[in-house]
Amino acid sequence: MHLPSLFRRTPFRLTLLFLALFVATASAVMAYVYMASASEARARAEASVRAEVETLVAIYRTRGGNALNQALVDRTLRGDKYLYRLRDADGKVVTANISDIPDGVDSGEWEAFRLTDTDAEGRVQKRQSIGIDTALSGGEHLFVGEDVGDIEAYLSRLTQALWLAMFFVLVLGIGGGLLVSRRVEVAMGRLNRVVGAVQEGNLKVRVPVKHSGDELDELSIGLNTMLDRLEGSMASIRHAGDAIAHDLRSPLTRMRAKLEVALIDAEAGKVSGVDALELALGEADSLLKTFNTVLAIARLQAGGAPDPKVFDAAILGRDMAELYEYAGEEKDIEFASKIEEGLFVEGNHPFLAQALANLIDNAIKYTPAGGAVMFRARRKANGEIEYSVTDNGPGIPEEDRERVLQRFVRLDSSRTEPGSGLGLSLVTAVAEAHCGRIELAEGPGAYDGRGPGLRVALVLPPAEAPDQTA
């Protein structure tokens, strides 16, 4: 049997649980209040009766039985609150203002009994009373009691008030539970509709945010952020697929044309078959390099930097500077480096090396002969580790700096240079996988027909130096 949807809701179940706990706690408190109040009232009544007994016994001891009898008569006529009965040694009642005392009361023992009385409207009532019988030295028995019906009525009214308050709390609690459950059900309904739409392939749908700052808003914002990233990833995948098809069309066409020409030349005896195969292998290697770069970017974006380790970024910087110093000399470019010591980062050494290689290679490639390239590795004022490559080449216009970080984007000025437009996008993927970022800014500016240049910085979070004693 399935429960109604209301009883399956977690907020409503929690409300019922807390109400059950409240009822149990309130019942225990009510029982304690009742018992404590009743005990206190009985203790006060007993103390009052004992004081009256002591007074009357003192009269009997000092002045005799007649004086005690006279004192009881006077108190009865005066309308005292106490209940009296005096019996002689033979058990005969001498003086009494009540007749409801049970027989066989043990001397010195407290007795609870019901006192028959009439209210202002003439209705007969049975009121709770207590009393104690005291044996006197002459064989007489003195019973003194007190009507505690008013206290009992007060406790009864208090109990009724507490039960009534508990009833209202239960009603309000259940009503509040229904309201909260309904509110959560509506909010979860919005979330479920969005999830259902996403399952059907609609990545444009978003959860409405009420900006109330509660946990449902936080969940909605988190879900919307996730959908934004998912939509961006899907768009990136579609764009990458389209870009690959578009950018590889020309290399594939060019390779087919070269192979066709090489085949014709080979048939005519102009070139050897080995030369034709070397040409085909060169073109195939270029295509494989493009595919491998795209695969590396996808791996970084999907799973972050693999096998991260803490290492000295300064050593990597010196290695890269030494590697590209000769490349700068070949192109008649002044290549210089400035590496600070003790720059520890945590990451994948090969991927970071590839990212720095792309940055330095781009700077040398696009800086004309006679220009200069500066490679730096330093610790910033906020503790971050920064690799930067600055050149005085043509630079990148500010409006295009965000775009060149995307896959397969090549500016018109770089179409004549070899490449696939994946270099900076790989650097961006490496930076994001290492919780870092890439920054593009203008270089040293225009000077002597060169410039304005470009400054590209790869910024990474610092890491603690490894313990050399371990």
From TrEMBL:
It is found in: Membrane. Residues 243-464 form the Histidine kinase domain. The chain crosses the membrane at residues 161-180. It catalyses: ATP + protein L-histidine = ADP + protein N-phospho-L-histidine. It comes from Brevundimonas terrae. InterPro entries: HAMP_dom, HATPase_C_sf, HATPase_dom, His_kinase_dom, HisK_dim/P_dom, HisK_dim/P_sf, Sig_transdc_His_kin-like_C, TCS_sensor_his_kinase. GO terms for molecular function: kinase activity. Residues 182-235 form the HAMP domain. Its main location: membrane. It holds the Pfam family HisKA. Its EC number is 2.7.13.3. Keywords: Kinase, Membrane, Phosphoprotein, Transferase, Transmembrane, Transmembrane helix, Two-component regulatory system. This is histidine kinase. It comes from the Bacteria.
